[in-house]
Amino acid sequence: MTDLGSVDLGLLVLRVAVGVVFSLHGMQKLFGWFGGGGLEGTSKWFASLGFGDGRTAALMAGGSEIVGGLGLALGLLTPLAAAAMVGTMTTAAFVNNADNGFWSANKGWELNYYLVVVAVAVAVTGPGRWSLDHALGFDTLPIPSDGVVGGLVALVLGVSGGWARWATRER
After folding, report:
1. FRET partner for 126 with CA separation of 20 to 30 A, picked from 13, 74, 93, 151?
2. How far is the C-alpha of 6 from the C-alpha of 68, rounded, in Å?
3. Is 145 helix (H, G, I), strand (E, B) or coil?
4. Structural domain boundaries in the chain
5. Which of 95, 89, 98, 99 is closest to 51 using CA atoms?
6. What letter would DSSP give residue 52?
């Protein structure tokens, strides 16, 4: 039998490990840290994918990765942080990987899928007691930080936002 302390610890480890690394990808995009292209390089890359001059797409993707990743890591506004992650990964799956099928070995959207599942699962489960949502009492807001509503908010906002960003690019 698992006690609640170990569930909260497991959620903390998952949130921090996935959220921090996710946010570092945004820092690569916007600041050029950790070998990334920075805003200029990332903008050029997004432009080559049909996103206008690429600057808005780079700011949106990098910002969503930083805010979503750190929000997940801190357990702050968890459904919205998860939605930012889901949206970014939905766009990435459509733009970079959809034509290659599911498996990462073929440059498919497998990794995007895993990150969407983690984000939605944390939104459904909630960030746990060791989170800012719990410390600030956000589990009583109109969008609770856990449960089916939180998971649906993350999934619906994320997928619809990510799809809309993909669908409105220049082709």
Report:
1. 93
2. 24
3. coil
4. 4-167
5. 95
6. T
